[in-house]
């Protein structure tokens, strides 16, 4: 939190930085509140854990509801099923299935750990088995390769921190329902795809009941004598080995998975660093390190990656987050950020382990490690994905961390305080029980009791003072966009102005005001205001260039396009805007008699066109990674490149490009006029004769423009302008 406050001075996107800082402040407040509550009443730790599990089940229910005909209107059912598909990935409750998968996995770990830590084994095991099954179904349908890789570690992580008698039950509570979920997922998924909601619910109910039965049997087994329990475990291992041996003899496990869940298997079994996703993550991390190299100590503030990565990428790709939570933090806060994050995870691991093995009530101690294991599972996955960029994930982790800290360092009870305040001769002596030590501990505790509420109240007041106006601004902006889409420009302008007053750092209201005033001076002014608030976002500069082009202010459009090109040097649209602006400015200069300015502008047009060609050649090896990685050479490119070469007195190089542009119906007239002039200037009269009978070419005899290419006086009649810019 302190690092984000310091980074405020260098934030490249002030509003985004405020948003991220508020999220961290809210998460820190959640940690403090949960820690204080659990420290006062450690017995509430298990209840808090089960509440988190209940929340996870609610999320899983929302995610699975379209498969069971819930939460989807009839007219949208086919669309939803097309998005999900019979073998498609889960995408109903999250924009990003990988985060959904690791979230469900972490909650399943928590449920299993809490169950084996409970004294009431039968209801706890049954509830946990049902919860783990439902969460596992959602996990399987999410089909996340990263989460599957973490799963192997998670299945060992939870038992590793539990007492010896609880390790095997915890493993079985995780593995059993997971196998049941894999077995029933296809039937559930296909029934949902065919809109057979009853059958889908039957599959889900079958798996749930089987898991509950397994949980009850496991609970009964744990209450049995040790010898019987050992015999059962040995028998279970023997049966499992026999089944596995038969399976390996008959066919490979991969083939079984492929037959059962074809599309999921194709995705999950395709784990290779040479795959598209793996290579893209490599490029994301490399570009994040480039940003860190430029801003090593303070970073660029919240959402710095989103605003800076286009400057460093070697080919065009769109990724609002880098797929690495540590590097995301590094781009925002510099090197100290990931260092602090590593310290946080190390402290959480140590505190969870020590808390689970410290003296205290057995139920409280046993519940500490499952919370730590759930948080660490998400932390492991955040190294390959952007889980920590989601506020709800941050809130979950900081809540779990607060509960772990509160249970590990509980507030002294009344009896303990009374003993601490007793005269020295009435207290037991020991290493830390001297009168001086007692007074120091007592005075420090009293001081902290008074400071903590005051600091929390002050921090809460600051967060609310900043967050509430911004929330109101977001609501007003959302309503304004709806009104603008409905054609109510006046109502939209009023709401956008209100939003701009409530959130003075937010560029969105000014962008809305610009789009509500097309063709007016206010459009340019509000786009400039948006750029001032968000100077590193190329889209605002592109939009301003487009507005200047509509007003035929070619030089201003060229400047805006140049700024967009500097911020996103791999984006094709920025090149096309710059080519259009400089090309029009060069023609305008020649038509007005300023030949030197025309040549200078035409030379810049050629430079931009050749830069685009080099960019296209450089992206040849990676064009398979991203659909838009390699910029296309459109008819606009050929037209502007050919015009600029012709104006610079190089008609032979101009002819192929103008000929290519003439193939486009949208640019045929203008391209053929310039092609005819270029062929004539190059002495290729035979080819020029083929175009001479075109109506738009014959009109050149009425308003000759040949002089534009020969440095002689130009006819500045309106007809000449039309012919040079014919649609």
What this model shows, in words?
This protein has 727 residues and is mostly helical. It folds into three domains: 1-40 and 275-412, no CATH class; 46-220 and 254-271, no CATH class; 471-724, Tetratricopeptide repeat domain (Serine Threonine Protein Phosphatase 5, Tetratricopeptide repeat, Alpha Horseshoe), CATH 1.25.40.10. It is built from 33 helices and no strands. The chain has helices spanning 2-6, 14-40, 45-64, 74-84, 97-116, 121-142, 145-160, 167-193, 197-222, 226-250, 253-260, 262-268, 276-294, 304-312, 325-333, 336-357, 362-381, 391-408, 414-421, 435-485, 489-502, 508-515, 521-533, 538-550, 554-567, 572-591, 595-618, 635-647, 651-661, 668-681, 685-691, 695-698, 718-724. Helix 7 (145-160) runs antiparallel to helix 8, helix 13 (276-294) packs parallel to helix 15 and helix 17 packs antiparallel against helix 18 (391-408). Residues 72-87, 246-254, 429-448 and 703-727 have low confidence and may be disordered.
In short:
Pfam families: Wzy_C. With 727 residues, the chain is an all-alpha fold. The chain has three domains: 1-40 and 275-412, no CATH class; 46-220 and 254-271, no CATH class; 471-724, Serine Threonine Protein Phosphatase 5, Tetratricopeptide repeat (Alpha Horseshoe), CATH 1.25.40.10.
